[in-house]
Amino acid sequence: MTIRLIPQISDLRRELDAARSEGKQVGFVPTMGYLHDGHASLMRAARADNDLVVASIFVNPLQFGANEDLSSYPRDLERDTELSAMAGVDVLFTPTVEEMYPNGAVMTSVSVNELSTRWEGATRPSHFAGMATVVTKLFWIVGACRAYFGEKDYQQLTIIRRFTADLSIPVEVVGCPIVRADDGLALSSRNTYLSPEERKAATVLNRALRAAAAVIEDGETDPEVVMETMAGLVDAEPLANLDYAAVVDPETLVVPERIPPVCRLLIAAQVGRPRLLDNLGVTAPGGAQ
Ligand code: AMP
After folding, report:
1. Predicted confidence (pLDDT) per residue in 256-274, tens digit
2. What is the Å distance from ligand 1's center to 220 Cα?
């Protein structure tokens, strides 16, 4: 089947309602475009599990701060359409900003307390409310479905799981593993901003995560020691500027007093123009699998 681009909410609803009334299961992959193999992995997972796969491409102004890269965010709809088709997407939802926000500035916002204020939320205060608002809107537009998100944005995934449950939205949220380049760098649309030297330096995020995981796997129980391991490695890389390096409870995202059986390592650093994120799940010795 060839991929179809649908820019109108009403057309998409009609199509998906008709599919569901025939008993089809809908899979949904929301993105901001400039797609790479990380996005394609979500699309392939949606293809494997569902009868009809819809992906969206929408660079959501609400989730960008005043000094962020909204106007320069990379875009390439032709390439994105090709990649989506190759990954098995049936329908690409490509609304304009006017289609999504016909009344201009929104008066309604979805905000998730506590989970949204730390880590990314501390540096980007309005980011998660903007993200949660557009994802809620997209869930209402697409309707009952399975929706696929990358663990690459771990805090985002945690917040999406939470408001979907809190608001009883009829969407099953599916988390998918991080896709990395051969040298360990997590794929990201913003990697395109990196110079060749910065691209090399950017691998320090994943190196720091792996070093910290090894420290935990060797039996360290003090979160401070683990966090210092990550911070030390990033500080030694002159082109990287650490924002945070933390070991957290995988659900509350709070730093525990002692390393729990299963934890998540979170890291963010500025490397040249982009702020880069990465994370890793770790099981401590004797911890549950
Ligand atoms: P974005 O276009 O950056 O908003 O990302 C859209 C979706 O793709 C989100 O669920 C991201 O977590 C996911 N994603 C982005 N990069 C990766 C990656 N390297 N591996 C897996 N998923 C990713």
Report:
1. 999 999 999 999 999 999 9
2. 31
